[in-house]
């Protein structure tokens, strides 16, 4: 519970947002009304907002608090879905590394999410495209084959322009929004837009300790907390999506950073990880070649 600061000027008639010092909220208890210093942590009672986000008698609402935008927030209209940028409070204008947002301004965020596998830009992801994309990350052939099977077998039919299944299990990017499923973070809407509020909620609710990311236990709580009743496909899809995300990023400290997860949603991290693997492989090859050369020179000098 935040420390209560005595503030006589806070009265029913003067308790307006502009009269409240930054870093404080109005706090009412049995002793009267005063100011509570928040220290950047969401308050546990009513705040200056004209609504409540938690009730003490409903513990789950206290445990999982949603993201509440502040007045000086760079992210405006967090509840409004963005069609072509993955906007967060840290990156309100999306990804600009390598001009990502500009180069993909004519694609929805869910289409951007899959653009990495469409190497030839024809709008179609063949199973072989999926396999090659996974191999570019350094995944071994078996893991890449498993990923290819899970992705194309499950995601092909909903995107098919025909009522009949595609015999080649191709994924059509233009209809990628048809693969929306339940029991996930609900960050993508049904048309493939990116919902900043839902993304921020994910970390506000499940980032235990406010460490700026999600560890394995946070992910497990998020997976269970987002479950829809009897949604077996959604449960399994969300599980494998988070597993793949963890395997790809593979954080050294075990924490999936918020920015990395954001870039998973808009797909910008996929190409970056492929280039990172290529750089490591090149550096390793150069080091190995240098070692062999030094070995040969040593033998000549004997």
Task: Note down, in words, how this protein is organized.
By secondary structure, this protein is mostly helical. The chain has two domains: 4-52, no CATH class; 97-275, no CATH class. The chain has ten helices and seven strands. It is globular, with a radius of gyration of 24 Å. It starts with a strand and ends with a helix. Residues 1-17 and 25-46 have low confidence and may be disordered.
Task: Outline the secondary-structure elements.
Elements: E1 4-5, E2 24-29, E3 32-37, H1 59-63, H2 100-103, H3 109-115, E4 124-125, H4 127-135, H5 141-159, E5 171-172, H6 196-206, E6 213-214, H7 216-225, H8 232-249, E7 256-257, H9 258-265, H10 268-300
Antiparallel strand pairs: 1-3, 2-3, 4-5, 6-7
Region (Disordered): 279-302
Family: Belongs to the caleosin family.
GO molecular function, one term: monooxygenase activity
């Amino acid at each position: 519970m935040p420390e209560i600061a005595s503030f006589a000027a806070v009265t029913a008639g003067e308790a307006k947002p502009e009269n409240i010092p930054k870093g404080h909220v109005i706090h009412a208890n049995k002793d009267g009304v005063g100011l509570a210093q928040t220290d950047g942590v969401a308050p546990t009672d009513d705040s200056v907002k004209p609504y409540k986000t938690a009730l003490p008698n409903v513990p789950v609402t206290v445990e999982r608090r949603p993201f509440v935008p502040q007045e000086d927030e760079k992210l405006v209209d967090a509840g409004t879905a963005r069609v072509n940028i993955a906007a967060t409070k840290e990156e309100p204008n999306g990804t600009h590394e390598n001009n990502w947002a500009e180069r993909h301004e004519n694609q929805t965020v869910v289409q951007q999410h899959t653009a990495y596998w469409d190497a030839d830009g024809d709008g179609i992801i063949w199973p072989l495209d999926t396999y090659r994309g996974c191999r570019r990350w350094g995944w071994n052939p078996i893991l890449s084959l498993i990923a290819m099977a899970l992705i194309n077998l499950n995601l092909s039919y909903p995107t098919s322009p025909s009522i009949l299944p595609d015999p080649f299990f191709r994924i059509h990017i233009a209809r990628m929004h048809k693969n929306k499923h339940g029991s996930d973070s609900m960050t993508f809407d049904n048309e493939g837009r990116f919902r900043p509020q839902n993304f921020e909620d994910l970390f506000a609710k499940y980032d235990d300790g406010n460490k700026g990311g999600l560890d394995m236990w946070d992910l497990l709580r998020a997976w269970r907390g987002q479950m829809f009743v009897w949604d077996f496909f959604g449960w399994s899809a969300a599980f494998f999506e988070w597993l793949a995300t963890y395997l790809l990023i593979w954080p050294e400290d075990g924490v999936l950073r918020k920015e990395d997860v954001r870039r998973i949603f808009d797909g910008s991290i996929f190409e970056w990880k492929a280039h990172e693997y290529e750089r490591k492989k090149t550096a390793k090859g150069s080091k190995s070649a240098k070692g062999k050369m030094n070995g040969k020179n040593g033998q000549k000098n004997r």
